Amino acid sequence: HMLAAAQGIETPRTTLISQKQDELSLFKAAEEIGYPLMVKPLRAGSSFGVTKVSHRRALPEAAKEAFRYDTDAVLEEYIEGTELGCAIIGSRNSQPIVGRIDEIELKGDYFDTHEKYTLKNARIHVPARLSQTKQEQTKELALRLYELFDCTGFARIDLFLTPDGRILFNEINTIPGFTSQSRFPKMLK
């Protein structure tokens, strides 16, 4: 997020926390971001250990859950809106192939581990239900991020679309899922 923000790309407010931090510094870091916020393990996938925190009293337990998966975690501003994804294949020495944008339609607060593998209350739309202009803006930003982070081979760039039309960088998945139900192959299909 810091590298993207330095390039003028909008990101959620984020701060790194460590398992070694005391509770007081954890609360202070959260206050700087504001509630609600997300607590995420720094190096985990499939939303393992991710918790949405709406109140201060839930923060220690959410941090404990994130630390089950990593010794470091992030506190991240909760972004109201829609999650979008973009699959990209290629390297800086070739013209990358950019897939269709997908959109996650949620009934809950965020795309948690259970929903990712059951789609019980969520739907994934490919292509995303966006105007052509917004799809092109999303692809351009995804490709810019892919190149900024010097990705090669393949990656899925995840973004947020806010109700007022802003597109924010969420994360890069350098090893996205490749099952028949995974988002990456569906975007390229």
The percent of residues in helical segments reads 25-40%
Please state the average pLDDT score.
90
What would the principal axes of the Cα set say about the shape? globular
Q: Give a quick account of the main beta sheet: strands, pairing sense, barrel closure.
A: 5 strands, antiparallel
Beta-strand segment tally? 9
Q: What is the count of DSSP helices, taking H or I runs of 4+ residues?
A: 6
Beta-strand share of residues = 25-35%
Distance between the termini: 29 Å
Rg over alpha carbons: 17 Å
Indicate the structural class.
alpha+beta
What string gives the helices and strands in order? HEHEEHEEEHEHEEH
Oligomer: single chain
- Residue runs with pLDDT of under 50 for 5 or more positions: none
Order of strands, main sheet, comes to 7-6-5-8-9
What does this protein look like?
This protein is α+β, with helices and mostly antiparallel strands and 189 residues long. The chain has helices at 2-6, 23-33, 59-66, 113-118, 132-148, 183-188, and strands at 14-18, 37-41, 51-53, 72-77, 82-90, 97-105, 123-125, 153-161, 167-173. Strands 7-6-5-8-9 form a five-stranded antiparallel sheet. The chain has a four-stranded antiparallel sheet with strand order 1-4-2-3. β8 (153-161) and β9 form a beta hairpin. The longest helix is centred in the C-terminal third of the chain and has 17 residues, at 132-148. It is globular, with a radius of gyration of 17 Å. The model has no long low-confidence stretch (mean pLDDT 90).
